Amino acid sequence: xxxxxIDGKNFAARIRGRVADHVARLxxxxxxxxxxxxxxxxDDPASQVYVRSKGKMTKECGMESxxxxxxxxxxxxxxxxxxAKLNAxxxxxxxxxxxxLPAQIDAELVINSIDPSxxxxxxxxxxxxxxxxxxxxxxxxxxxxCLLMLREHCGSLSGLNAVVLGRSNIVGKPMAQLLLSxxxxxxxxxSRTRDLQDVxxxxxxxxxxxxxxxxVTGDYLKAGATVIDVGINRVERDGKNRLVGDCHFxxxxxxxxxxxxxxxxxxxxxxxxxxxxxxxxxxxAHDLPEPEGLTA
Length: 296
Ligand SMILES: Nc1nc(=O)c2c([nH]1)NC[C@@H]1CN(c3ccc(C(=O)N[C@@H](CCC(=O)O)C(=O)O)cc3)C=[N+]21
Prior knowledge:
- The chain is an alpha/beta fold.
- The chain has helices spanning 8-30, 45-60, 76-88, 107-111, 125-132, 141-154, 172-181, 196-200, 249-253, 266-285, and strands at 4-5, 35-41, 64-70, 94-97, 161-165, 185-189, 205-208, 226-229, 233-237, 240-244, 258-259.
- A hairpin with a 2-residue loop joins β9 (233-237) and β10.
- The structure holds 5,10-Methenyltetrahydrofolate.
C-alpha cells in the first residue's frame, strides 16, 4: 500500500472544534445559541443510530438539539404541519428531515416546504438552483465534507480532472457543482457510462458515490489520484456484518496517492458539516459574519 490515508474522523473532530468555538463566541458575545431540529419518521435502526449521533454531537458543540421521532404511519399532512411549526420557531435555525421517508409521504414536497434558509441539508430546490448558479446557498453536507477534505489535501483544485461516479441529487450532482466552482474539469459518470474504467482513469480526483460495495478497484485509477469514497455499504464477510465503501480499499490504496477509508472517512465529515451548516444558517439569518473554512 502506498496511498496516504485521508483521516476523515480526525478532520471531522477538528471541524466540530471550530464549530464549538464559533458557538461559544455567539453565546459569550450575544447570549444566543443556534438550534438544530432533526425529524425521524419511522424506526429504521440505521437511521435511529445516525439521528442519535447527530443529536449528541450537536449538544457537544454547544448547540440546542431538538429531536422529533414520529411513527411510521405519520401522514404527509402531519409532517408538513410539524415543519411549518419549525419554520416559524425562532429557536430553530436548521431543520433536517431524515431520508428516506415512508411511501405515503412525498419527500420532494416535504423538503420543499422547509424554509430554504433553515435547510441545512441543502436539498430544497431553491438551494439546489442557487448552488448551480453560483449564488450563496446551503450546501449538502456529504459533498461539502468531501470538498473540505479535498481542499485540505490538494490545496488548489483548479484545472484538475475530477470524475464523480454517481448522479444522485444528494451527492453526485451537488459534488459536481462544487468541483466545477473550484475550476475542476468535471465528468459525471454513472451506470450507463461507456468505458467507465477509461473515464475513471483520467481522474486526478475520483469521488465514488454509486452505492455498490467495492465496485471501484485499483485498475479504475490513475497512479497518484486522490480518491474520496462516499459509499457506506453493509455487507456480510466471514459471518460478520462489515461496512465497506464503493472502493475496494486494498487495491485502490496501492495505486492512489491518497484515499478516504470507510468507516472513518466521509461519514464523520457529513455530520460535522451538518453542524457547520447550522452555525452558518444562524449567522446568515442574523447578518453576522460566517464561520471561516466551514462553507463552500
Ligand atoms: N436528510 C438526510 N440527511 C443526511 O445527511 C442523511 C440522511 N437524510 N439519511 C441517511 C444518510 C446517511 N448519513 C450518514 C451520516 C454519517 C455516517 C457516519 O458517520 N458513518 C460512520 C460509520 C457509522 C457506522 O459504523 O455505522 C463512518 O463512515 O465512519 C453515515 C451515514 C446521513 N444521511
